[in-house]
Amino acid sequence: GGLWQLGQSLTRRLSRPDARAISRRFLSSEADLKKTVLHDFHVANGGKMVPFAGWSMPIQYKDSIMDSTLNCRENGSLFDVSHMCGLSLRGKDAVPFLEKLVVADVAGLKPGTGTLTVFTNEKGGAIDDSVITKVTDQHIYVVVNAGCRDKDLAHIEHHMKSFTSKGGDVSWHIHDERSLLALQGPLSEQVLQHLTKQDLSKMYFSDFLVLDINGANCFLTRTGYTGEDGFEISVPSESAVELAKAILEKSGGKVRLTGLGARDSLRLEAGLCLYGNDMEQHTTPVEAGLAWAIGKRRRAEGGFLGAETILKQIETGPPIRRVGLFSSGPPARSHSEIRDENGAAIGEVTSGGFSPCLKKNIAMGYVKSGLHKNGTRLKIVIRGKAYDGVITKMPFVPTKYYKP
């Protein structure tokens, strides 16, 4: 939950006389970082670049994180998310193979549709959350988090070797030749429609298409990480900069380049997990509030790693639960202690910040089951002082996904 805070700190400090020292602090490892094909484009457009998951990424541009967040909700934002890892699983056994690793009912997806899912370990913990799409019955497209790329690929490869050694038909391709853009906000469809002949009004949330956009062969998924309507566009890397320029031009300046700082505040307002903060390898999907992602057939049959633990939690309830929080005082941050009104420790904040849309402090965290009900009053400890808080429903800001 530190991206929003980092952006605010960087903005404040770069305006001070010690800007050079602060720049060295945040950017000293620049030479060691990977760069997306849009890196120079970001710099040319005022992007403040910081290390993130081994990449040099823009945390913000000329706009403040507050303004960028509001503009995404009112108009639109364009994010470079090429640091994330896209891969394709192919073969007649691609679906049963993937179902051994994730909780989703992959077989039950219609071709051209997808869903959020979780890769689990043998103890039922979350290795990563991911968006998967069934392109066809023999082709599954997967996008995993940048910070989890190495462990995710090692995990998939390990199980794939075992699966194929027993005669299973599945292979993979990692799409390092492609870049990924996320166009989010109410103007997304209108702007993107200028660049393709495909009727996007017939494409709904979680739908997937392979189509021509601005002259490039793209994978298009109607999804995102902001709570807004929008698209993720996998584009051949040689066409990525031109596509970004075309999107911004067709919007007439209303869609703006947006960095990781606003992306973090947007996803927090939408009540979405950030892996590594709100979900980790010791957290089950049930504890994280993602039991809805476990299909009815998977609940009945199991067959995925950690199924025994996860299905037992669905039946009897998990020991802890992810909740939304409003709080007074300064914004709560990751690892802030949560106490009941009598002062007993009951949990911990995992993400928090000031909501640009609601103009109040919001946070997510985990508390003991039984103390997770909406309206429960509690205390959040920030820098040694306890402030009033209350558990509330998520998302904090209503989602606007485009559904039939």
TrEMBL record:
The keyword Membrane does not apply. Belongs to the GcvT family. GO terms for cellular component: glycine cleavage complex; mitochondrion. Residues 38-296 form the GCVT N-terminal domain. It catalyses: N(6)-[(R)-S(8)-aminomethyldihydrolipoyl]-L-lysyl-[protein] + (6S)-5,6,7,8-tetrahydrofolate = N(6)-[(R)-dihydrolipoyl]-L-lysyl-[protein] + (6R)-5,10-methylene-5,6,7,8-tetrahydrofolate + NH4(+). InterPro entries: GcvT, GcvT/YgfZ/DmdA, GcvT/YgfZ_C, GcvT_C, GCVT_N, TrmE/GcvT-like. This is Aminomethyltransferase. GO terms for molecular function: aminomethyltransferase activity; methyltransferase activity; transaminase activity. GO terms for biological process: glycine catabolic process; methylation. Keywords: Aminotransferase, Methyltransferase, Mitochondrion, Transferase, Transit peptide. NCBIfam families: gcvT (TIGR00528), PRK00389.1 (NF001567). Substrate binds at E232. Its EC number is 2.1.2.10. Residues 322-397 form the Aminomethyltransferase C-terminal domain. The glycine cleavage system is composed of four proteins: P, T, L and H. It is found in: Mitochondrion. Gene3D superfamilies: Aminomethyltransferase beta-barrel domains (3.30.70.1400), Aminomethyltransferase fragment (4.10.1250.10), Probable tRNA modification gtpase trme, domain 1 (3.30.1360.120). The keyword Aminoacyl-tRNA synthetase does not apply. The glycine cleavage system catalyzes the degradation of glycine.
